[in-house]
User: What shape does this take?
Amino acid sequence: MKIVRDEKSGTFTFVPDKRSEKRILASIIKILKPGDKIFYDGRDEDRDGFPRLFFYAGAQKKEKVEKGNGWTSISIACIGGIKLTLSGNTKEDRREVSQIRDACFFGRGELIFIGETVVDEKKAIKVTVRHCKLCKANMINRVACEWGICDACAAKCQHRYISGAIRGGSLDISIGEFCDSCGRGKPEMADENMSQTEHHCAVEK
Assistant: This one.
């Protein structure tokens, strides 16, 4: 699947590379309308170690409860719908797959269908990850999706910085200061001389 990121519009466009992908996207276009959800349902890795993401369009979410000896597990399963497997064929597409996973995982566990489009004479779909809770703008950035506030609204935020655990671009946990309203980090928020081990120890304290 070719993945086109558009930061300005806050969208991803999925363009099929294979015949099977063309059929799946065409089926999704038939059943979805703008605003419908495409639910994230986990991931695995391909034979080269790159992530593959699984989504369901037109599905229903159902709570699944499993019980054992002294433990209870509650998860959400997708019932019905059309399965969309998202993987990339190029290094750039594979990087986008990883970023989509992070935005979905720390966001709301879903994509939002924007509509259909045509790229290189192929039917494609356009999606976003979340809408800003303040202005309803489309968002695809992990931090924005996690906190529900787009970059434009975060720039207007009267930041209230607190200390705590933060995630970097590689999702490593460190200690620093961030706004408890929009989630953006304070400039020069961490001691650059602190090792990653020291960061983790600080988080544990």
Q: What stands out?
A: Helices lie at 19-31, 91-106, 142-147, 151-155, 196-204.
